[in-house]
Amino acid sequence: MSDRIANGMKVRRSVLGDAHVDRAEAAKTPFDEPFQTLITEGAWGTVWASDGISLRERSMLTLALLAATGNFEEIAMHVRATANTGASKRDVLEAFQHVAIYAGVPRANHALKIAKQTYAEMEEATDD
């Protein structure tokens, strides 16, 4: 395992949590293993591992980009990750407000709906 992959796995676990990464690793097959290696090395071992900006800022950027490009499938995962990155609910709202102005209100509105539902689920889980 390369240093970038090992570091990527460490960063991925710190941001997304062990349970999420363990599920993803358990679901990995020979078919998608090259893709999983690519994102672990590239996204997590290079981009997220960079010390150029904070994990909080990366969370905000990632959520804004996902919403702006209409890639809503990963918004809940990255909202849950804010518990580990330090991005607050206010930070997420600010990011989605930027999306509304620069990429469109419908996308920001849908992302905000997902975030609200995800925060409610997170709060419910901590009440248990």
What can you tell me about this protein's structure?
The structure is a single chain. With 128 residues, the protein is mainly α. It folds into two domains: 50 residues, no CATH class; 75 residues, AhpD-like, CATH 1.20.1290. The protein is 79% helix and 0% strand. It contains seven helices and no strands. Helix 4 runs parallel beside helix 6, helix 4 packs across helix 7 and helix 5 packs across helix 7. Its EC number is 4.1.1.44. InterPro entries: 4CMD/NDH-1_regulator, AhpD-like, CMD-like, Decarb_PcaC. Keywords: Lyase.
Q: Provide the structure class.
A: mainly alpha
Uncertain regions: pLDDT < 50 for 5+ in a row? none
Domain unit count: 2
Summarize the helix and strand pattern as letters. HHHHHHH
CATH superfamily of the largest domain: AhpD-like
Question: How would the global form be characterised?
Answer: globular
Chain-averaged pLDDT: 96
Radius of gyration: 15 Å
Q: Beta-strand percentage?
A: under 5%
| Count of alpha and pi helical runs | 7
Biggest β-sheet, characterized?
Answer: none
Give the termini separation.
39 Å
Write down the CATH class of the largest domain.
Mainly Alpha
Work out the helicity level: over 70%
What's the number of extended β-strand segments? 0
Topology:
Elements: H1 3-16, H2 18-27, H3 33-47, H4 55-68, H5 75-85, H6 89-102, H7 105-127
Helix pairs in contact: 1-2, 1-3, 4-5, 4-6, 4-7, 5-7, 6-7
Domain Carboxymuconolactone decarboxylase-like: 35-116
EC number: 4.1.1.44
Enzyme class: lyase
